[in-house]
């Protein structure tokens, strides 16, 4: 009996660890600096808000894009796309895909400013783009996975000064030769 209970406890601990474990790329109140290989797009975006520091930690991952392996994209970092406490609605221009994310936090403003890394491939175009609408409420987890065979093309966000958090919305597109 005790062996069965011990085995069951080990099973639940292992399962729980797999479900909640994330690879946070920042600590609360610290910068985010994340970049995929130039032939990949950000394909997974998870973020948790903590009321204490009034900030988020991020877990971002890269996804392979089959059509891009033999091509040489041009990539660049944007300037900040938002000011403190302000909304933004950003998409990579010229049929680009989001390949990196940088962010800084200000403890006085209790907000983040964001930059994105965009990549463009010659002869490739976005089409059939879809917006997610808001994927979270203020203070709640953000969890977005880019559908298979698509790229992350845009991010939209709105800040609330009372809660000191943001809503998030993502634009994904198919990516094919023009």
Describe it for me?
By secondary structure, this protein is mainly beta. It has one domain. It contains one helix and eleven strands; from the N terminus they run αβββββββββββ. The strands form three sheets. A four-stranded antiparallel β-sheet has the order 1-6-7-4, with no helix packed on it. A four-stranded antiparallel β-sheet has the order 5-10-11-8, with no helix packed on it. The chain has a three-stranded antiparallel β-sheet with strand order 3-2-9, with no helix packed on it. The longest helix has 19 residues. It is elongated and about 45 Å long.
Question: How would you summarize this macromolecular structure in one to three sentences?
Answer:
The chain is mainly beta.
List keywords for this structure.
50% strand, four-stranded antiparallel β-sheet, 178 residues, disulfide bond, 1 helix, mainly beta, single chain, Dermatopontin
Strand pairing plus helix content: what structural class?
mainly beta
| Content of β-strand | over 45%
Instruction: Report the span from N to C terminus.
Output: 64 Å
| Cα gyration radius (Å) | 18 Å
Helix content: 10-25%
Envelope shape: elongated
Mean pLDDT: 88
Give the oligomeric state: single chain
Overall tally of domains = 1
Largest sheet data: 4 strands, antiparallel
Element order: H for helix, E for strand: HEEEEEEEEEEE
Pick out the low-confidence regions.
1-20
Q: How many H/I helices?
A: 1
Count the beta strands.
11
Strand arrangement, major sheet: 1-6-7-4
């Amino acid at each position: 009996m005790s062996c069965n209970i011990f085995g069951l406890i080990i099973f639940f601990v292992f399962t729980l660890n797999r479900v909640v474990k994330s690879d946070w790329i920042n600590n609360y109140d610290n910068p985010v600096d994340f970049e995929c290989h130039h032939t990949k797009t950000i394909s997974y975006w998870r973020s948790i808000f903590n009321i204490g520091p009034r900030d988020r930690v991020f877990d971002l991952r890269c996804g392979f894009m089959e059509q891009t392996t033999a091509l040489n994209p041009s990539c660049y970092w944007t300037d900040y796309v938002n000011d403190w406490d302000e909304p933004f609605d950003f998409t990579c221009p010229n049929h680009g895909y989001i390949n990196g994310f940088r962010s800084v936090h200000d403890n006085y403003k209790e907000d983040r400013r964001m930059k994105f890394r965009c990549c463009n491939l010659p002869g490739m175009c976005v089409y059939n783009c879809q917006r997610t609408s808001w994927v979270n409420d203020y203070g709640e987890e953000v969890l977005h996975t880019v559908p298979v065979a698509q790229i992350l093309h845009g991010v939209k966000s709105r800040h609330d000064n009372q809660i000191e958090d943001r809503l998030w919305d993502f634009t994904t597109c198919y990516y094919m030769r023009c």
